[in-house]
Amino acid sequence: MALADLGRAITGQALDTAKSSMLDAIKGEPSKPAASAAAPASPAHDSGGSVGSVILGQLQAMQKSLKEDQELVVQFRSGEEMLRIVEIFVPSPQVFVLSGNDGQQRLTRIVATAASLQLVCKVLRVTPGATPVRLKIMTPNPRPASDAPQK
Question: Which of 16, 41, 83, 112 has the fewest CB atoms nearer than 10 Å to its CB?
């Protein structure tokens, strides 16, 4: 039983490290020591940008824990319509562009602030022989200071 607890602890640390690296890349900050990840900020005291980082971290953690025969279905409700999201573009930590298909399989995009998003996430098994759909998350690459436009 102790071996299983050790495995869970190591997996949790690995997920926290991966999430922290991704969040730092989104914010454009250099990697921080693991000690900063051990003291998460309270949601009530977060700045507006960190809400998006938390959402992305949760989505990535859910997707990373999937087995080969599972897929993460992310849905967004807009009025009476439920959209299946297949791609999230994050132009800034406060703004998300969600892409997916509506009920008639038409490509639909939603531009929303991270703080206003409410996503429904479900882990579903795929039919045998089918390829699971993976959520694609795209973030802008931080530009080094030397690549900044000259004025």
Answer: 41
